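Assess this one:

_____
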Amino acid sequence: KKATEKLLGSIDVDHNQYKFGHTKVFFKAGLLGTLEEMRDEKLSHLVTMTQALARGYVMRKEFVKMMERREAIYSIQYNIRSFMNVKHWPWMKVYFKIKPLLKTAESEKEMASMKENFEKMKEDLTKALAKKKELEEKMVSLVQEKNDLLLQVTSESENLSDAEERCEGLIKSKIQLEGKLKETTERLEDEEEINAELTAKKRKLEDECSELKKDIDDLELTLAKVEKEKHATENKVKNLTEEMASQDESIAKLTKEKKALQEAHQQTLDDLQAEEDKVNTLTKAKTKLEQQVDDLEGSLEQEKKLRMDLERVKRKLEGDLKLAQESIMDLENEKQQSDEKIKKKDFEISQFLSKIEDEQSLGAQLQKKIKELQARIEELEEEIEAERSARAKVEKQRADLSRELEEISERLEEAGGATAAQIEMNKKREAEFQKMRRDLEESTLQHEATAAALRKKQADSVAELGEQIDNLQRIKQKLEKEKSEYKMEIDDLSSNMEAVAKAKGNLEKMCRTLEDQLSEIKAKSDENSRQLNDMNAQRARLQTENGEFSRQLEEKEALVSQLTRGKQAFTQQIEDLKRHVEEEVKAKNALAHAVQSARHDCDLLREQYEEEQEAKAELQRGMSKANSEVAQWRAKYETDAIQRTEELEESKKKLAQRLQDAEESIEAVNSKCASLEKTKQRLQSEVEDLMIDGERANALAANLDKKQRNFDKVLADWKQKYEESQAELEAAQKEARSLSTELFKMKNSYEEALDHLETLKRENKNLQQEISDLSEQLGETGKSIHEIEKAKKTVESEKAEIQTALEEAEGTLEHEESKILRVQLELNQVKSEIDRKLAEKDEEMEQIKRNSQRVLDSMQSTLDSEVRSRNDALRVKKKMEGDLNEMEVQLSHANRQAAEAQKQLRNVQGQLKDAQLHLDEAVRGQEDMKEQVAMVERRNSLMQAEIEELRAALEQTERGRKVAEQELVDASERVGLLHSQNTSLINSKKKLETDLVQVQGEVDDAVQEARNAEEKAKKAITDAAMMAEELKKEQDTSAHLERMKKNMELTVKDLQHRLDEAESLAMKGGKKQLQKLESRVHELEAEVEAEQRRGADAVKGVRKYERRVKELTYQTEEDKKNVTRLQDLVDNLQLKVKAYKRQAEEAEEQANTHLSRYRKVQHELEESHERADIAESQVNKLRAKSREAGKTKVEE
């Protein structure tokens, strides 16, 4: 309580809004909502703080990664710059040319290392083989030790199993003794219960009869089953008798003796039923039978022990045999599998060897090809050198011609006035010179192209040959590994074969031992079959006895069923009559109560009528007095009229007022009189009706009295009949008890015999199965004649043992007969005890009758107390009705609250559904965003692939730079092309600017439509994709421009170089060519500057697009934040919904508690009503009895 006070004191809440009880805090309306809002605010604050911490942690991690990326970018850029600076150096070019030719040295080194590895592997293999041999020797010793240990374990387990079996036997004997003890205690308890409650005994007897019927049916079914099994066993016995023809004579003698014993037993049973004088002889026979039973029990226990031992041995042998067979089969399967594997491996080895040979031949061929290609390369290099020397010669010729030309031109200039023939000659020479130069350049280009193609072919062929050599070496290594593995497997299989051979020898030994044990088991099975025959004989005898007992039991059951039917019919009639009497008594009591209440109302109305008449008489007296006073006043007025006019007028007024009051009172009295007369008439009519009802009730009471007398007579007759039937029932019960005890004992003996029979049958079946299995195994392995002779001898010994066992069985039969005689004596003793107990029970019945009379007297004394309790119950009833009304009011309030809560719940559910829809839409938008991001990532990867391709193309262009050194005419054509491309780029730039304007418009629209997060995200993503594509185009164009710029710079350099040469020539030549070349150079420089400006503009455009992409990414991040906010909102709504659900559940619980209280109160009210009704009925019964007692006394 203090804790709650402190807790609520610490909260910033109006402290007048709640109060503390003993165990609860009572809140005013609206406080719970404020508390929940405070809780929600606190929770949202905590959640936002945790989210902020998490975001901070994630961003710090991201910042670390970004810094690492930045450093990596710097290092990569530095490496690329350094590479680009070094790339154009001549020694690097030489290095790039020589690098592909360095694989041959590496291949030779790899071959040397492979040889070294091969030698190492050989050494390891020899070591492994030596270790394998050592391990195999150790394995053999370990296997021997393992076998010795297994033998020790088996011997110890056998000892353990023997000890466990002894313990089990002791435990079973203990359980049997405990069961007998329990049976005796249960019998004692049953006897005490029978003495205490006769009615319960009756029901028990009926239940026992039904159970006995069921048991008899079960016994019949079991008998039928046993007979079926008997037929099956007899068939088996016939088969056995055919095998053992020599034993037929002894069995015939035993059957004759068995029949004689059965006839003697039947005669004794008949004598038992007919004559009671032969009890002494039977007692003697009983003692003999008991002795025999004891002997049989001892022999049975011995046989059980023997059987258990046999079963144990048999199970062990079966398990060993199965294990041995399985191991043999497994070993054979393994042997076959290993043979197959060896064959497969040999085949595979041969295939691999053939492959190795083929590959070696291929390697030789490839080496030849390599040598040929190397020779070809040398030839081509020689040709290239020749070509180079020829080119040098041509260049020298060209230089000579140019010199000659210059000299000619100088001469011409010096001469000044050259002829037309000389001009034509000059033109021809210039034309020839140009042709020669073109042919030279074409030949040089062709030679370089052929040289490059040859180099590529050579490099590709060398690479292919190197790869083929590597593959061959790998295949060779794999084959060597597989060869070593196969060798290992072959060694394992050989060791497994040796182990299989050893196991086979052990199994043969086991088979021999099992055959010896089989012969012993056969002997024991013959003994068991003999015992089975004896048990069959006993079973037949027991069946005859069981039939007689069942017939007697059916007769007794028929009697019992007849008696129970009669009893049930009597009880039903008694109950019907009681119901009629109780209904009539209730009707009589109700009428008497109605008459009494009517009389009481009539008396009250009479008293009221008399009081009203008295009031009327008083009013009439007052009227007469007033009239007399008026007459006096008139007389006085006549005498003293003149003197007392004023006084008379006043008195007149007073009298008039009094008269008015009197008239009003008279009218009221008259109205009262009229109403009283009406009520008097109504009450008179009601009294007359009640008198008629009373007369009818009296007539009905007289009829009921007559019926009750008749009913008492009928009851007395039924009581006599009931006593007679009870006496008959007791006699039948006595007989049934005696029969049930006899039947129970016979049933026990019969069940024991059946169990023994079943066990013997099972043993026989198991033994026969074992014999058949062992005979099959013997047939498979091939049994010798010597072993057959041994089996013959064992059969003869078994025959002798069976004969001895038969003699023992005869002795046990005699012992059983003596036991039967003892059982019969005990039966007689039990009968006498039951008779004595029945006499005691009769005395107890008389005592119960006396006690019931005393109870009746006590009931009359308790009637008064019941009347008082009824009045108290009525008071309680009124109180309960008041409480019930209050509870109903509370229930109505609770129902209203529940309805309001349900409405709130529905509203909240609707809100939740809306929030869920928003959430689903946001999730869909997120998924679309993810898909688009994936698309962008794919496009990015494609871009990177294209960039890599472009880099490769760049390298190729750098290589083909030498080829691209053409004349100024080609450069001018390219410049024209560049100009056209620039114009196209300017057009594309304009298009992009227009697209940019459109994109900006779309962005403005997207900003206006920022409420729908999904559409904004989609548009942003589409814009990002478009911008990425445009960026890619711009990057491509910028890269292309850069390439063109580089090419232009190269061309400019070439042109500058040529310019220098031209200047040197122009010094000798004309000024016109110089001016032309200078103008051309200026134009080219202007074009280069224009191209640089365009490149700068393109870079600016790229940066703009990058900024736009960043803005779009920022917008997507804001959309993600909005989605997270929506998620938080949904979570809050879900929390509120849960709170509302809790409130609704609490309201429902309160309503349920109110309903349960209401039901309890209603139930208590109904119980009080029932008690009152029961008390009234008992009072009425007692009154009726008292009246009848009074009438009988009057009549006496």
User: Anything to note?
Assistant: Residues 1-80 form a domain with the Single alpha-helices involved in coiled-coils or other helix-helix interfaces fold (CATH 1.20.5.4820). The mean pLDDT is 71. The chain is about 95% helix and 0% strand. The longest strand covers residues 18-20.
